[in-house]
Amino acid sequence: MRLRRGIAIAVVAGGGAVTTMLVGLVTNAVSDESRWPGWLGWLQEHAWFSFVVLGVTMAGLTALLAGLSETRPPTPSGRPEDGAGPGAAQVLRSLPRDTAAFTDRAAELERLVGSVRASQESGEGLPVHVIDGMPGVGKTTFAVHAGHLLSERFPDGQLFVNLNGHTPGRTPVQASEALASLLAAAGVPTQQIPVGDDAGAVTEARAAMWRSRLAGKKALLILDNAASYRQLEPLLPGGSGCLVLVTSRKRLVANEEVVMSVDALPPDHAVELFVRLSGRPADALGRDVVDELVRLCGCLPLGVSLLAARLRHHPSWSAEDLRGRLVAARDRLGELRAGERAVTATFDLSYRDLAPERQHFFRQLGFFPGTDLDPHVGAALAEVSVVVARRHLEALYDDHLIDEQPGSRYRLHDLLRDYARGLAADGDSMDHVQAVQRVCTYYLAALAVANGHTVRSGAAVPPAPDDTSRVETPVLESRADALSWLETERANILACVRRANGLALYDLVVQLAAAMAPFLRQAGPWDQAVALHRTAAEAARHTGDQRARGDALAELGVVRRFMAAYPQAIEALNDAVTAYEAVDDRRGKAEALNQLGIVWYLTADNEDAARAQTEALALYRELGYRLGQANALADLGMTHRQMSRFDAAVEAQTEALAIYRELGDRYGEANSLRDLGVVHSLMGAYGLAARHHQEAFDIYLELDDRVHQAYALNELGVVRRLTGDIEAARTAHSQALTHFTELGERFGRANSIRHLGVVERVTGDATEAIRLLEEALGAYRELGSRGGEAASLSELGVARGIVGERDGAIEAFQHGLEILRGLGDRCGEAEALNHWGMLLLTSDEPTAARRHFGQALTLARDISCPLEEARALEGIGRCDWTVDGPGHGVDSLRAAVTVYRRLGVSASMDDIERLLV
């Protein structure tokens, strides 16, 4: 029944997988970086509106595609998730280092640079330049060298992406995955990167965001090792100022491209490269012998470099000695590798020249499922110390058998990777399995260290396996170090999970997925997390480990919630509860119930949400798990507030606050204070609300959290306005607006503009109020915020009524009430009815006005919302006074004065007392 209700909500919002995609996009735009969007306090409207369900419109999607790259997501109002995402620092200089092995390609370079210069000088759009050629010919080296030469012409950044089009053991990078990496590198917080189940829609949305990100910029993008035009097309910028260089073994031809084929080096250039890298004088080598050497390796730069390195490392060898060894190597290869014998013979010669322990190390590199590695990974693969691994890597780099990458990392050229894998395949197949086991074990140990820095204090951290005690892990001294390491190794770890799963190493799959879960919750992209946890759940099914299966399903449910795929989240979390019950895992069941409660809160299924949080709370109390208790209480408090059960909300939130303070959890403390402030404001306790908001603001200031500071300022401003301090309200909202504008946080900015519109209306400038409120309304509609839209419409109705736009005012009230009733926001509904009643009263329709005030009074008393009760009483009294003459309605007016006095709303109280006098 619950699942059907969740599906119905999704269908009403827009229907089917497309709706899930749209909701996911909009949720990302205003997504929190915490594990408890049950709080979502930053999505709350001001004190009179309670945000329940985030609606999605096509306008919202359009806004995301057009401007989401301008947006930074707010930190949550609720408790932070168990883990945290990496910062959004821009990394727009990612070209690999230029190589000393580059030799003269003057004609190709001149053509490329000339083409770019001509396009820029003529103002024409820069065409894509496709560099194709056979393996080992130097396509990547040429593109990187050209990139360095042209970098000054593209000051907005230079990016390099390896698409793995022909990398042995790796599937080509999907366009969607590459776009996620590019967006993150360009500074887009990963929570904002679109996700969803429709792969095509996700790719289109990410491509649109990528084009928006590069609009008007001059950047250089190298797409290396492309498999097909279809793979790279979504990655192409839309603007005319960006240069794209593509390398591929295939001829990728389209109308707008400049195709440049890179052939083997001319013999003279190949000889020049050999002489330079050999470190010997040309006349000491013998031109005829060198000519034959470069011919035997096909004049390919990779082969020439390897041969020259062999000679440099063997001072006693002559060029003739090297030639003899190369010929023998070619003969050993026979016909099995005839198609690549020219360059493979140089590999064989270089490999056989290595010491046995270095040969072993090189073979182990062929087992690595990832792409690039550091000495710690090398040490795990080969069962050596990190010091020894570093020495091997440096020696192999010196021998031109591996390439050096930024950050003291290394990678094998695709041909050398294939060669190493071939060598490894000739040995014991168990060697492969054991190497993968070792590297996975290393990653588990390193993840335990990283999670120790990033996972929230008091939260459960997946422990490292017992056999990791002897594993050398990287030195991670801070949260920033850990996040940087996690981001660097993310793709490699996921590749290890896939390889381990293919080798039926299911226990390792489950453990790695659990260890990566805290990071992927925040860092995303969430579609990667979905795939990981599905794999882990299936692996746990193979092993019969119900607890592990429950963990994987629970994580899947959390990520599905982040994606706003609520029916799928409910299904996964219900399955997790069942799995935990099968093994009597009460802690796991409590966590899953807590997450279920959050999902039901977000889908406005309040009774189910309250039941789930109550059951989770009972389990946490049985277990003595204090953080879990605080989380469940906080989410229960949010649910009670949403149901207008304000006393119960205060009770739950106050207990949560006490536990957060006991645990020293400053974020939890601040967020509970803020939510208490919202509830107390709804209850009319403005002094207490202001103190809570100020305390929360001070903690956010201490935590250097500018987004939350701005939200607290807006809440303070609302309280100041309601208590008559208009200038203080204006100052608070203006400061919040400045913060949100600087941070690019569009939802918070819309809130600030709306609040300032109300301030202008209260101070008598209805025209300016309408301008501001219409701007806020447009922003909310673009973001898909139904609660924000309703709040703006209610205020617009008041302002339009003031300037005499009666029909426009009624239309705004009608539309706003429709939304509020759909959201179940009874306090907001009472406020809108009171505003509408006042419009009718001033339009000489006191009888109709009294009906509206009567409805508002019933609602306000039912939910104990004193301000709206006072407004309704005042309206009823004024209607009676108007209809029946002076002196009638006095009881209602005096009752309103009593409530206003208790609330400290002196302006409204003074107006009534003047009337009574």
UniProtKB/TrEMBL annotation:
Pfam families: NB-ARC, TPR_12. SMART domains: TPR. Residues 119-276 form the NB-ARC domain. The chain crosses the membrane at residues 7-27, 47-68. Keywords: Membrane, Transmembrane, Transmembrane helix. InterPro entries: NB-ARC, P-loop_NTPase, TPR-like_helical_dom_sf, TPR_rpt, WH-like_DNA-bd_sf. It comes from the Bacteria. The keyword DNA-binding does not apply. PANTHER family: HTH-TYPE TRANSCRIPTIONAL REGULATOR RV0890C-RELATED, REGULATOR-RELATED. NCBIfam families: HaaA_phane_TPR. This is Cyclophane-containing RiPP biosynthesis TPR protein HaaT. It comes from Streptomyces tibetensis. The gene is haaT.
